[in-house]
Amino acid sequence: MENSKLRPSFQVSTDVVPIAEFKAQASQFLERIRENNQPILITQHGKAAAVILSPEEFDRLQKIQYERYVLTEIVHGQADALQGRTVSHEEVKAQLQERYAPQKKAVNK
Fold it and tell me: Are 20 and 14 in contact (CB under 8 A)?
């Protein structure tokens, strides 16, 4: 697995920061995020308001989300195939020709 380093767990005592403190020390917090790749939770009026991640961590999470989506769609496709919910190549080709033939004629005029 890519980037399989064990990450330290989220530390409430250091990784939850009031927005005023973050504003006052933004560059230090951003440097800390770059160094340890650990997200910081920003609070406003005592409630969670935002999470700041490194770009690499954001990309990693996006990749995981995309891979999960693709795998879910594959499982759905396999279930459809097993239950006979399929369409032949010829049927798909005919449907596409029917759908796009009027557009093709309009473009060629």
Answer: no
Rounded Cα distance, 11 and 2, in Å? 24
* Whole-number Å distance between alpha carbons of 26 and 33: 11
Token readout for 4 is 């399989």
Q: What is the pTM of this model?
A: 0.64
* pLDDT tens digits for range 55-80: 999 999 999 999 999 999 999 999 99
pLDDT at residue 87 in the model: 94
| Bridge partners of residue 42, in order along the sequence | 17, 50
> What integer best gives the mean pLDDT of the chain?
88
Residue 69 phi/psi, 5-degree rounding, is: -60, -45
Tokens of 38: 């650990």
